Amino acid sequence: MNRALMPTVALGALLLGYGLFAVAGDALVVPTAKVDGAGPWRSLLESSSANAWRGWTSSGFPDGWHVVAGVLAKEGSVDDLVTREVYGDFELELEWKLGKAGNSGIFYRGTRDYDHIYWSAPEYQLLDDANAHDGQARLTSAAAAYALYAAPAGVVLPYDQWNTTRIIVKGAHVEHWLNGRKVVDYELWSEDWQAKLAASKFAAYPRYGLAKSGVIGIQGDHDGSLAIRRMRIRTLK
Question: What is the DSSP string of 107-125?
Answer without folding.
Answer: EEEE-SSSSSGGGTS-EEE
